Amino acid sequence: MSDWLDTVKWDAQGLVPAIAQDAASGEILMVAWMNREALEETARTGRGVYWSRSRNKLWRKGEESGHVQTVSEIRLDCDSDVVLLKIEQLGGIACHTGRRSCFFQKLARDDQGGNRWVTTAPVLKTPDEIYRK
């Protein structure tokens, strides 16, 4: 039965944004997109599955890197247009840059009173170490 999927407000491309949040710490690790198939598979398997807009195909998180997401809870926001996944990030790396979270850049004031982005988290593994070709 997929009635629950009909509640989601999919965009014109049939996608919905999905936030991956560490279930233990509450830290936001990444944001991606899901289509119906990705959300259904995530619910069925308990593993984070997304829609890759750049590759135009399903992306099973960790299929290349080994950094799988185990999903403990799926939530839908009040407007039914954003999905929240509470996850355990196996391997501790969610970002393709090799960092724990994709949100590693923080806006900070510079000495001249302007703004600049500051990197706040180290690379745990380089992309070359993660994505062996």
Core attributes:
single chain, 133 residues, mainly beta, 4-stranded mixed β-sheet, globular
> Strand order of the main beta sheet, please?
2-1-6-5
The number of distinct β-strands equals: 8
Rg (CA only) = 16 Å
Note the beta-strand portion.
35-45%
Q: Tell me the number of helical segments per DSSP (H or I, 4 or more residues long).
A: 3
Please summarize the sheet with the most strands.
4 strands, mixed
Amino- and carboxy-terminal Cα gap: 39 Å
SSE string = HEEHEEEEEEH
**Structure classification:** mainly beta
Apparent shape? globular
Mean pLDDT figure = 95
Low-pLDDT windows of residues: none
Helix amount, in percent?
10-25%
Task: Give an account of the 3D structure.
This protein is mainly β and 133 residues long. Helix content is 14%, strand content 35%. A 4-stranded mixed sheet has the order 2-1-6-5, with helices on one face. Strands 3-4 form a two-stranded antiparallel sheet. The longest helix has 10 residues, at 36-45. The termini are far apart. The model has no long low-confidence stretch (mean pLDDT 95).
